[in-house]
Amino acid sequence: WGEERLTKNISIDGAPFPVLEALYPLIEAICDYECFRDDRWAWIDSICINQEDEHERPTVQLMDRVYQQLTRTTIWLGTGDANGDEALRFYHQLTDL
């Protein structure tokens, strides 16, 4: 969103589809883990909303409604780095509030 970022192609129904390079490891995880194969979970805003399409762009304003109707939320923090433990500690502090 915003400035252009590096992309990698995934295959959707046999056709190439560009996703943000940072999102690619999540797509791999979705394919590797059974818990992600439930067809009810499938909202990834950077895939579901085409920011290049002026007719789809206003959909961003509806995202709060989408998230309010979720029964399960998975947050992807990336593949991890030296600060990963600190991020998880912060998350646990937030959930204890």
UniProtKB/TrEMBL annotation:
InterPro entries: HET, HetReg/Transcr_Mod. Residues 3-94 form the Heterokaryon incompatibility domain. It comes from the Eukaryota. This is Heterokaryon incompatibility.
